Fold:
Amino acid sequence: MERFQEIERSIIKKFRKPIWNAFTAAIVKYELIQENDKVAVCISGGKDSMLLAKCMQEIQRHGKFHFDLAFLVMDPGYAPENRMLIEENAKTLNIPITIFETNIFNIVSKIEQSPCYLCARMRRGYLYSRAKEMGCNKIALGHHFDDVIETVLMSMLYSAEIKTMMPKLKSTNFPGMELIRPLYMVKETDIIAWSKYNSLKFLQCACRFTEMCETEDWKQSKRLEMKNLIKSLRETNPYIDTNIFKSIHNVNLETVIGYRKGTEFHSFLEDY
Structure:
């Protein structure tokens, strides 16, 4: 058995419940893939997107209906060693990647305010554009369970709104295109366990300035703050992360003071 086959087998066997079952459950629950879709699996080089690619290969192979896949890697200006690591991992995992280049890192390096936000938006736009050129109608990103609940808390604590990371979204700038998140119900600890079990080393950060991810500034980032908050809450309630996740599926509208749909605001007083 070749190494990539052993890695595939680990997803289906050893990590069946935490990864494979959670992955397939999200696809069914949120209706993420339909017959004859062509999905561009977007690979950044990190553990999440690489696992996503393998899971998508497996469900294409064993699924109940036909759909096509493309594995898309955008090089926004990676350091040579980082790009090489992505290529080597793709070869090890038997993922037939297509790489295209942009100069995003050069552009955002000149931006002082919110460079990460701009980078993310630009990356998304380039991925949509290239995926559409390849005949795809969907792009798949590697956001997982922890990304979802951290986003919920960040929105509440720092943006003063209740907002979630959706399992799928229709693109407003690219008609006919849709974004899906098949790892929506897969926990990060299980992704880490899978990568360690298979002795795989992935990029820790998609940025060209990867070394910055180890600085004190990064350690104080809001997302890491949310990770630590959830970790501390879990010490008194081991189900805290699951409860946060379930809560966004179980909103009691009778007890909501106000809500917004688009630009239109509503208050409970309207029906009081």
